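Session log. Operator J.P. requested a structure for one protein chain; no other inputs attached. Running the standard single-chain path with token output.
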Amino acid sequence: EQVRLLMDASANLDAVRLHQEAAFLATKADIREEIDRLKTHVASARTLLGSGGAVGRKLDFLAQEFNRESNTLCSKSNAAAVTAIGLELKAVVDQFREQVQNLE
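Structure written below.
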């Protein structure tokens, strides 16, 4: 009964609107931008760590960025495996932040 009702209701859908909604959902679930930003932040952290000097505050800022990206990644994910990776990333970011707080 429910399937029949859904099929009847779908006959009244506007095809253009349906395509717009599908494109919106696909864009919303795309995590490539977060992955790219994480790569950039990792490269920045490596550069800072190799430069020496007082880098604690800058690394703390990067830790905040890592955390922000991992949160966004988890919230966008529809796949359990990606969510698990995001949660692991959050744990590693937490450890990173703790270590950074010990630096000048």
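Operator note: DSSP finds five helices and no strands in the chain.
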